[in-house]
Amino acid sequence: MDALGVRSERAAETVDALVIPGGESTTIGMLLERFGVMAIVRRRMAEGMPILGTCAGSILLADVIAESNQPRIGGMRIEIERNAYGRQVESFEANLRPGPAARWDRWHESPVHGVFIRAPIITAVHEGVEVVLEFEERPVLVRQGTLVAATFHPELTSDSRVHDYFLREVAGFPAGRNI
User: Is residue 126 among the annotated active site residues?
Assistant: First the structure.
């Protein structure tokens, strides 16, 4: 499986799935608009392209961002609050527990370890959104069809289950597909 950077309209048209990483959600949203990628991602998402958004990526997928009119992709029926756990110095790590929609056997092997850096909180999930993982009774990994949002950074641990879940269970990819 090949991973490609998506920084242009052409790249956004050619990938089979998209991972929107953490970072600064306002800046990412502005860059998506500036380089003409936002409209393509929205169209491809509507056509069923699988998308995983982690931390800032989850903010960009949310239909509602508390007290913000920043550029966003939207499309995921969640409400989210940016930096809700606090500032950078209040970042933390924690074990997560399976939520009501944790039907994949691998979620139950051992706790998933989450790294929360200026992390958002999902304050509401609406119809069609499944809660896969939770922390302190709050959703931290949710799925809506081919969209997945994580409010933590799964790429900062050695546990590949979030990415495996996205690639295999959500996107249904065999080896050799571009993402």
Answer: no
Written as one letter, the residue type at 95 is N
Catalytic annotation, pick one of 55, 127, 134, 137: 55
This prediction's pTM: 0.94
Q: On the CB side of 48, how many CA atoms lie within 13 Å of its CA?
A: 3
Q: Where exactly are the structural domains of the chain?
A: 9-170
CB distance 151 to 65 below 8 Å: no
Active-site residue, selected from the candidate residues 79, 113, 130, 155: 155
104's CB contacts (< 8 A; 6+ apart) are 132, 165, 169
Q: Does the annotation mark 155 as catalytic?
A: yes
Active site residue 55: yes
pLDDT tens string 89-137: 889 999 999 999 999 999 999 999 999 999 999 999 999 999 999 999 9
CA–CA separation, 178 vs 152, rounded Å?
24
Question: Do 62 and 149 meet the contact criterion of CB atoms below 8 Å apart?
Answer: yes
Separation of alpha carbons 67 and 48, rounded Å: 29
CATH topology of domain 9-170: Rossmann fold (3.40.50)
